[in-house]
Amino acid sequence: MGYTYVMSDLHGMGSLLERMLEKIAFSGDDMLYILGDMIDRGPEPAKVLDIVSAAENIIALKGNHEDEFVNWYENEAERALRRYYYNTYEILAHSSETRERLPEYVRFMKKLPLYKKLKKDGACYLMAHASTEELLQVWKRKERILWDTSMVDRKRGIPGYVSIVGHVPTFIIRGYPGSPARIWHSPDQRLIDVDCGAAFPDMGGRLGCLCLETREEFYVSAGKEDEA
User: Fold this and answer.
1) Planar angle of CA 130, 156, 172, nearest 5 degrees
2) What is the pLDDT of residue 95?
3) Model-level pTM?
4) Which of 63, 88, 105, 191: disulfide with 37, CB 3.0–4.6 Å?
5) Over 90: is that where the pLDDT of 224 sits?
């Protein structure tokens, strides 16, 4: 029986993803959920997308960055008027190999689900990129799932559930303390933010990963030794 892991906001940090999978000894018996924003900012969006799309036991959700990239790429008029405002298109288009695969990458990102509900060990988990409140509504508004920070702002979860989100780097929640970022748990223990700002090492950001069964936290950092 394997373990269930959750991380978010890789933002093109492909080498950190490789190191994290090695650190947790990720195997075919395990399951990993990535809560969106796999692209933009970091230098290796193709590596992240290749690893995630090739693994049957890695389930990625859509983040606002995947949504924005797909919308821009599929709108030919928009593409003609302006460049994509982050570095993903420039990086993917620079290499002939990744340039040819751009439609494949776009199809993959377009099909990503917005959320995941999971029951495990007596707990009901709600997972989405930014907010899980919409998951309990009949009509689920995509914009709130991808962008809304009100749950993190209130520092409260939803009674009866454990919500896991990304989108807001945890060093922001903690008021930019200058120390290495950590996975954040709300005071009521119903809300967890796993976005530790992997693409912002100068601000203490790193990639965080949470194991649901053991609640153990794992971290890898860019350009330095991993902190506890």
Assistant:
1) 55
2) 93
3) 0.96
4) 63
5) no
